[in-house]
Design a protein that fits this description.
By secondary structure, the chain is an alpha+beta fold. The protein has five helices and eight strands; from the N terminus they run E-E-H-H-H-E-E-E-H-E-H-E-E.
Amino acid sequence: MKTIKNDRFILKLLELEKAHLVCNYFLKNQEHLKKTMPYFGSTMFEIPHWEKTLKQNLEYFKNKKALRLFILNPDETEVLGTINFTEFRRGVYQGCFLGYGIAKKHEGKGLMTEALNLAINYVFKELNFHKILANYMPLNKKSGRVLQKLGFHEVGLAKQELFLDGQWQDHIETRLINDNWSDVIS
């Protein structure tokens, strides 16, 4: 995957050498993110964990299973957020799932909407998916607004969808359809 750049950020798969930046992002934002993302244990806040995970991310992309991107500041010294396209399914389905998070200090600046727009464009044009599914918790109105701005349509309520922050959480299911999808499958 090529790196996507603009004047506000860089969007890319990260190399192992950047593991310290990812570790720092999760350390600084653990309180902010803990209600909406799975907890992976205390090793999540250690560099060796992220070296292993970044290596795995590169393999997943190479093997057409997932695309896990990081949003970096222009000089690549800070992770601003994450965008993950996972559970790639081809065949008659042609879709994947979207998850994302942003540092607390970068909320409300339009950064996530802008980064997601570029990432979704890549997934639709370059990876040729027909649909992207994204879920958000009903109380997370900001996330719902981001998805709505991007054109995601609500599908329904998924009761007790994910086990987050120590309990089963309901989620609103949404999806975005690629109107320019081609049945030429790579």
